[in-house]
Every structure is written in structure tokens, then in C-alpha cells.
Amino acid sequence: MYGNSAGPPPSRGAATVITLRVLYAAAGFLTCGLLACVPLFRVAVLRGRWYDWTAAWVSLPLSIACLAVVGSLPETDHRTDAALAAALLLGAAATAHFLVLDIRLHAAPRAFTGHPRPPVHAPVAAPHQGPAHPAGFHPPHPAAPHPYAPPPYHPAPAPLDQVRAELDELSDYLRRHEGRDGRPEGGR
User: Fold this and answer.
1) Would you say 94 and 37 are in contact if contact means Cβ atoms under 8 Å apart?
2) Who has the most CB within 10 Å: 73, 108, 127, 139?
3) How does pLDDT run across 121-167, given as a tens digit for each residue?
4) pTM above 0.90?
């Protein structure tokens, strides 16, 4: 009754995508690996694969443990240097992983989901071959529709036409339900 409201969802602009990409990437590396899980969780949400979720959840206690070692041992201890290097590498690896996958996901062409595609290996029915003809003679074939052609497009009725149809139905209904004495019900 209100027309066609189904449409594609609004897409993010290029500036918004770049800003979010920079913020997620900066969260992993600029916090010295403490928030390395943030870009990994974003990848896990985007892709939804089990190993992405595992990497995101493992990075959280790993980065906390590395920074706890850095904070608890003296600066002259070699384990402090190794823990800080591990935390920085974790942040850099999480950032690189996020950037690679996010750029791939946004660059991938989106498939049209209106009509299913035929399988690649499916045989296509060939038109019926008639009797043999002399060399060089090709009889005309009637145009056959493609077996995977989309159904014809029928636009939705214009809102004005739909309103007219509903008003016609209403007036028919009112005519049928007039009072038995020939005048409208309610004395109007």
C-alpha cells in the first residue's frame, strides 16, 4: 500500500571506511600491543570464521601477559626486552592482518543475489537438431529463450493506480452493504 520501500541499504562512503580502517589499525599498534585484539575482533566479525575468533581471543591474554612481564621485571632483564618485542610484534601482526583482510573484503565484487547463478558444470540443453540438410544450408530456428534467463520484469503498480483500485473496491463494498430499504445505513 505504501509503494516499493525495499532497496539496498545505504553504503558507507570512502571517507568513513578509511577512517574506520585507520582507527582499527592504530588501536593494535599504537597501544604497544595491548589492544591488538581490537582489529582481530573486527576481522572475526566481518568474516565469522572460527580461527579468526580464536586468534582474537588468544591475542587478548597474550598481550596482557607480555605487558605484565614488562611491568614486573627490571629493565635490565632480557625477558623484559623479549616480552616488549612480542607485544609490539603482536600489535603489528594484528594490524597487518586486519588491513590485508579488510582491504580484500571491501575490494571483492559483491554478487547480485537476485537470481541464482547456474552451476558451472551444468550442461546446457542444446536445441533439437532436425534432419540433415545440404552443406551450407542452415534452416531458420525459432528463437528459444535462454534456459537461465531471468523472469520478465513487472514493475509494481504506481501509487496513484493502487489508490484508485482501493477506492473502487471501497465504493463497491459500500454499494453492496447499503441498508435494506435502499438508503445508506445510519440515516445519512
Assistant:
1) yes
2) 73
3) 655 555 555 555 566 666 555 565 566 666 666 666 677 777 888 88
4) no
